[in-house]
UniProtKB/TrEMBL annotation:
Protein name, entry field: 2-C-methyl-D-erythritol 4-phosphate cytidylyltransferase
InterPro entries named among the record's database cross-references: IspD/TarI, Nucleotide-diphossugar_trans
GO molecular function, one term: cytidylyltransferase activity
Organism field: Nocardioides terrae
Transcription regulation in keyword set: no
Keywords, ordered alphabetically: Nucleotidyltransferase, Transferase
Coiled coil spans: none
Length: 189
């Protein structure tokens, strides 16, 4: 008998799907549904209580609960992975950030010239979610950015951060072509 590594029950937490500053792409369709809707359903299935970005930061602080930020551009992130990240944040009292390995070749640029290849084993792509433990929520006055890569860097500069490798279907889309590729990758068999 195998155990599902994502079969966990998260503590009470609040969450939102971040669609701000992402243009119209969150409203593109994947499997016949808007990306933002798919991401919202995953949050609900993970047992996270939704809030919208109009909620005051003081209200989030007063809740004393972790805050889960789920990127609308990572619409197929499994609910179980979101729940696992909330549990990891609670257990480690750290910000938890979902990441994917870098698969592209990355080159260093020096004085306008392409230089050596950077070892991609040391690189990750920020995906979703970003989970803020209650003590981090309390220490912030709000989000310093809605861009997940910028947000991850800002949080890492101030707080303990743990990265967790997200499953392949959690990849972030950046174009309609990416949406079609993700749709093909996540088509039920």
């Amino acid at each position: 008998m195998t155990t599902d590594p994502y079969d966990v029950t998260p503590p009470p937490s609040l969450g939102t799907v971040v669609e701000t500053e992402r243009g119209s792409l969150p409203f593109a369709l994947i499997h016949g549904e808007a990306l933002v809707a798919c991401a919202s359903w995953a949050l609900g299935e993970a047992g996270v209580t939704p809030f919208d970005l109009g909620t005051t930061w003081a209200g989030l602080v007063d809740s004393g609960e972790p805050v889960v930020l789920h990127d609308a551009l990572c619409p197929m992130t499994p609910a179980a992975f979101l729940a696992e990240c909330v549990v990891a944040s609670e257990e480690r009292s750290a910000v938890v950030i979902g990441v994917r390995p870098v698969t592209d070749t990355v080159k260093q640029v020096e004085d306008g010239y392409v230089g050596s290849t950077i070892d991609r084993d040391a690189l990750v792509v920020v995906t979703s979610p970003i989970v803020l433990p209650p003590e981090v929520v309390e220490a912030l006055d709000g989000l310093p950015s809605y861009d997940f890569a910028e947000l991850a860097a800002a949080l890492a500069a101030r707080f303990p951060v743990v990265t967790v490798e997200a499953p392949p279907e959690s990849r972030r889309v950046g174009s309609l072509d990416d949406v079609r590729l993700l749709e093909a990758q996540t088509r039920p068999v």
